[in-house]
Structure formats: C-alpha cells, structure tokens
Amino acid sequence: MIPTIIADWRDVPAAARGASLALGNFDGVHRGHRAVLAAAHAARPDLPLGVITFEPHPREHFRPEDPPFRLTLLPAKAEALAAAGARLVFALPFDAGLAAMSAEDFVEQVLHQAIGARHLACGADFAFGHRRGGDVRMLSRAAEARGIGLTLVPPVTDMAGPISSSRIRRALQDGYPERAAALLGRDFAISGTVFHGDKLGRELGWPTANILLGRHVEPARGV
User: Could you tell me the residue range of the domain that residue 28 belongs to?
Assistant: First the structure.
C-alpha cells in the first residue's frame, strides 16, 4: 500500500490532521527507523500513523556538491514506510525557508497549527530547526505546552553499535550487501529505468540491468 504523501505543510487536508507522527529523515527506513514508527503507533494506536520527513535530505540542501548518498528516494522511502505501517507521509520541502525556521516556530507553525500532531516519536539524538537549534529537551517542553505527547526512542543496536544509515552506506560501498541487508531488515534495492548497455552480461553468463543511479549511493562495483 502506498501512503498518502503530503508535500505542502501549509495546505494539509483535514483528514490528515491529528496523527501520531514519527520524526526523522528515514533514509533507508532501517530497523532503527522502524522502531520509531512502532513507538509512535504504540503510544497512540487510536490515531493514524504518519511520518514527518524532509525532501530533499537536508544534507543535499546544505552540501549540494557532495556525492550522491541516498539509500532511498521518496517513492521507495514511502513504500518502505507504508510497509512499516505509515499511512501518512509528510515530505516537507527542505528549502531556504524551512532551513531558516527556528525550532520553536517549527513546533508551533508546522507540527501544531498546520499538521495538528497529537503525538510525536523520535530518536534521542533528533535535532531540528535553524542551525539544528532544537533538541529533544526543547521538543519535550514545546510539545507538552501544546498538549502533544512525545516518545523518545533509544537506538536499535547490534554488536557493532547503533544501526544507522551511515553504517549501511559504508557496508554497500565496501561491497558487503549482506551486512547492509541485516541492518536494513530487508535486501537493499534500487529501482529505476533500465537502459541498454554493452550487453556484456550475455557473454559472462550473468543477467544484468543498467540503471541510472541518480542521487542513490553507489554500491561497490561487481557482478
């Protein structure tokens, strides 16, 4: 199931207001991300489950010269979020205006007034607002003042430490897709338009497909 994607926080349909929301970038929608969604649902199972994320990723806004790094672009991210139970995805456009918005204004104008959040869940290291001026302590105070619940979710860890998108990117770039899959909780996949190449796969005996990576992270090369 594909969730309802809302890109304009200034024009939120009435039916999309009043949800329990997970906050974060959710690149890859890995096991740690899904724990945040599960916490948002567990806190208020009576409410629709939604996600607030940002498009493009803030790193792409502030550092456009960086190499492509995304594990999931919005269509794949929305599909993975839906598989984790989300019915609403607020894909907020991360532009100069949102980057300059203070943490207090983000809570008041976006979360409270525009989206009508009833409950929030995020990781303990979540930061937001202009120059990342808002942390979970500030969010806790601001949410409580507005009657919004908040659940702080500890990181999901394995023997190597917290599961993160950065670890998954490194595993893929180093040529360990099985490690990436263990952290993601599913196989890593890239979708896109297939185009004709040199047809060397036929000679090698391996079926291959050429897909433009765009802003996706580039895994280690091989067959």
Answer: 4-157
